[in-house]
Every structure is written in structure tokens, then in C-alpha cells.
Specification:
The protein has helices spanning 13-18, 32-66, 68-99, 109-118, 121-135, 151-156, 158-170, 176-187, 200-213; strands spanning 21-22, 25-26. The protein is an all-alpha fold. The chain has two domains: 30-101; 114-213, no CATH class. A hairpin with a 2-residue loop joins strand 1 and strand 2.
């Protein structure tokens, strides 16, 4: 199901001037130092929230035995800490997924690991299956699929989707930024596969970009 989660960062006017079009979406360039700082901040909040959750969990039995009001307060703190830790983790992973399209950020340790996972056989098989499922003219709509593909648009690029799936499966070390772009195309609700407000040219451009870079060896 397409991901309709976090709103994208709003780039400044200077970023817009130099932000290239990556597939169907304009991505604001992120400097490596700024990206590292954002990831560190989310990581620190996540670690702090986990520590708070652990402490609250340890205090909860004592609070229950001591007084009901204390138990309610500690339980609320525990729930809040777990919620914040989960939000920080998901937000961090979402940023890593979005930034994986930028080769210049692969020096970041966490992003390097993310890009490595994008090259794994499991990820490649899953995305190839998603491309073939999208291209299948007999596909049955999923019960909870809130953003079905646009049949006419998919029909026009069926050959390209199937070829991309084959190349993705057969390439042992595809360019991670290309794999990230394919993942975004299949899972983002704003993708031209699902969004009629995007032009069909956006879809062709994204597929062409992904295919052109899929056999490019990653730098470093």
C-alpha cells in the first residue's frame, strides 16, 4: 500500500534553485553535515525515550503498589515514552529511505547500511515482484488498497515495468539510488502510478531514470 506518512520537507528558495528532479518528485538537496545532525537528533530523542520507557516500566509495579494516582502517572509516562520512541524511529527510517536517492550522502554510516540493504537479494526480489504485480493487467485490487494504480497509465508502460523488474532481479549490485527510486515509485501515494494529478511523462521519466542507473556501480 502506498505510504502516505510524513509530509516532505519544504525546501527553501535557494534549495529549489539547485534541487534536481529525481523521478516524479523534486527533492531538496541536503548537505551531509545537516543530514548527519538530523539523524543524530532523532537518534538521541529515540534513545532518551527508550531510557524513559525502561525507567517507567521499572517503576510501574511500585507505583501500582503505592497508590492508584501514581500508577496512572507512571503508566502515562510509559505510554508517552514508547510512542515518542516509535515516532522517532519511524521518522528516522523514513528520512533514510528518502535520502537513499542521493549518492553523495552514502558516507553517512546509517545511510550506507540502508543503501546496502537496498542491494540485497531479498529487497530486489520484493521490488521486482511489486513491479510485476503492478504491470499485471489481471491484478485483483487489494481490500485495503486506498490508492489503486491507474490502469491506462500502467498499460502504456507495461513493457518497461517488466523489463525493469527483470534487470533489478538479475543485477547483483544495482545502484542503490535507483533501487530507492523504484521503492518510492511503488510505495508513495504521490507516485504517478497512483496520482492522476501527476503526468504520464513523470512515470516514463522515473522508469527511464531508474533503468539507466540500475547497473551503475555504487561509488566508494
Amino acid at each position: 500500500m502506498p505510504n502516505i506518512g510524513e509530509e516532505p520537507d519544504v525546501p527553501t528558495s535557494s534549495q529549489n534553485a539547485r534541487a534536481p528532479s529525481v523521478g516524479f518528485r523534486r527533492h531538496a538537496r541536503v548537505e551531509p553535515a545537516a543530514a548527519e545532525q538530523r539523524l543524530a537528533l532523532l537518534g538521541n530523542w529515540r534513545a532518551g525515550s527508550i531510557a524513559t520507557a525502561v525507567v517507567s516500566g521499572g517503576l510501574l509495579p511500585l507505583a501500582v503498589a503505592w497508590h492508584r494516582s501514581y500508577a496512572i502517572a507512571v503508566a502515562a509516562a510509559l505510554i508517552g515514552a514508547v510512542t515518542l520512541a516509535l515516532w522517532c524511529h519511524l521518522s528516522r527510517e523514513h528520512r533514510l529511505s528518502r535520502w537513499a536517492v542521493f549518492p553523495e550522502l552514502d558516507a553517512l554510516p546509517d545511510l550506507a547500511r540502508k543503501r546496502k540493504r537496498l542491494q540485497s537479494a531479498r529487497t530486489r526480489r520484493a521490488l521486482a515482484a511489486g513491479l510485476r504485480r503492478t504491470a499485471d493487467p489481471e491484478q485483483v485490487p487489494r481490500r485495503f488498497d486506498c490508492c489503486p494504480v491507474l490502469p491506462d497509465r500502467v498499460a502504456a508502460v507495461r513493457t518497461e515495468l517488466l523489463q525493469l523488474a527483470t534487470d533489478l532481479e538479475q543485477t547483483q549490485q544495482p545502484d542503490p539510488s535507483s533501487v530507492a527510486l523504484i521503492h518510492e515509485l511503488l510505495t508513495d501515494a504521490t507516485s504517478p502510478l497512483y496520482n492522476p494529478n501527476r503526468s504520464a511523462d513523470d512515470l516514463r521519466d522515473t522508469l527511464a531514470r531508474a533503468h539507466a542507473r540500475i547497473t551503475t556501480q555504487p561509488s566508494g
